[in-house]
Amino acid sequence: MTTEIYLDGNATSPVLPAAIAAATCAMGQRYGNPSSSHAAGLSAKALLDQARQCARRLLGVGDGRLMFNSGATEGIQTAVLSALVALRERREQGEAIGSLLVYGATEHKAVPESLAHWNRLLGLNLTLHKLPVNAQGMHDLAALRACAAEAALVCTMAANNETGVISDIAGIQAVLEQTGCKAYWMVDCVQALGKLALNLAATRIDYAPFSGHKLYAPKGIGMLYVRAGAPFTPLIVGGGQESAQRSGTENMAGIAALGTVLAALERGDTFRSHDELEGYRARLADALREALPGIVFNNPFENSLPTTLNFSVPGLSSRELMDVFDAAQVRVSSGSACSAAKAAPSYVLDAMQVPLWRSAGAIRMSFGPLIDAAMIDDACRRIARCGAALRSGCLIPSERHSTVHDGLLQMGVEGVCSWLVLDAASRSCVLIDPLPEHTGRIEAFVRCQNYRVQAILNTSAGQENGALLEALGRHAASRVAADAYGWPALPERVTLADGQSVAALQLGARTLACVSDGACRHYLLGAAVQGRLDAAAVRFAFSTASCAPALQGLTGAATLLCPSRDEHNQFCSGAAAADAVCCDSLQLDHAGLNALLGSHPAVELIDVREDFEYAASANLLAVAGKVQSVPLSRLTEHASSWLAAPDSTLVFICRSGNRSLKAAQCLRRLGHQHSYSLSGGLALAALAQAA
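Structure for cysteine desulfurase, as requested:
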């Protein structure tokens, strides 16, 4: 198995081996409760004190508080609660406190959510005020100066988690001092730990939360700094642990592990230097520029952490980039890991006012200060492989033509889709209901495949395809007169099953027939014999809906209907298609797959990842059987063949099990009762094989 290259360090990090050993020791040999006065408790207390003293020295805490907690979110909650309780008390005493809760536009979502939560619960009813940033991601100091007089609490961050942009902490402090602002100030220092020098007591910062899992400690352990004299209200009360600042028995395993990481940081003998990390980032950036034409970096390297790159590639979505990197076992992120599941542009990049295509298509590549030259070398090789895979799949420009595709290709966007009917032998194709969103992708595909577009057809009248024709240029057929649906004025005709003679286009050995139905058009694709296209010979029908009464009698039982709307990711439908399929009956885990392969040696294994993912794959499923690559975008073409062999057994696989489940559901719904999906996909299968 090829080892993974983990480049998502801003989301979390692996645990330092020495930290694992320290946690194991705390759980095994030094398991006492640090609040107990016997020897076992005193041993644990000594471990706790040692970790705290190291943290105090490293962070320059001075006379301030330094407490252990569960992580940055708890630290942010505690800081916000402490500041807002103090503000309410001051207001009740008649003091003017300001009306604004100011937070940076690029703050982690935990900050504005905490502000809104405690502002509401405490009944303060202050106004949340978003502080803008400039195009480089730096806080707008002029805007801060303008609102400082009304600020009650200011929340900024030391370094951004998505872009790595380093804040001008000295500049923010200068504005607060020069304006006489009395607001409390919280600085999120999560990404700064181990990457920026910190001397907190020498600043005006009132609160600074930290999280251990961003720097090789386990999840569930963190710290909060509170400046001496800053107000403090415990978030958790009870037994009085942590000097009554945070009750609950301390997480000694986590504290021991974090203490070990902090000690290594203090010694300076474990992590890479700033210059080394900058050199590694430069090498990754060069590899990305070589592999991905037109790449744009969204963070200014001169003012960001040396461990973070944020980039976008013209014409590629973040999902496609994520998929190709993941196939190559390179782990990256689309923006913040906390919101990666949400299909939305990056609010951080939106705040920096970058174009939407960059904000929506951004990828974050980040690493920790333990990385070494060998891993960077391997990462650069895999980045090159990803670029080659994207070229072969016609997703980025290439000087050579890729392997020619044949049959049907479906491109989908939010419930609607474009269809491409391809004929490799004649290097010609027809586009049906192309979406404006697909103009660039279709142009790149046609050019890369060196196809000639015979026609651009629509199933409803009045759709504008001028921009697509312009983009296709020489790859579009010589312009001839066409009707409102895009059908060219050509003499070819074909006779349908009901005897009517209709206009037709020839695509190699297949015929595309045009059927009018009031304000709609339908297109039938099949093999005509002596100028006649019988119902049984129609393999595919293209229409605006999943069912078209006008096609009755013109299509056969095996015809697959390909609608231009696909809200439920059904890909296609058939005459006897079921409405819904239970997921449980078609999911196989890795053990179930092996058992099925043992009893049915002729099982067909079908990888539904896209071509570029398959080409970039570092590992394939290690099973006793041949894996066939059939991208989900080409499922309809192959479904027609699989349905002709109803007794065959099909197992679909993909990266995570989501796309393979859709494929299996489609085949089951169409009537193929021996279709299955590998639950958890290649990701869980790799774990099962390793175990």
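The longest helix spans residues 39-59.
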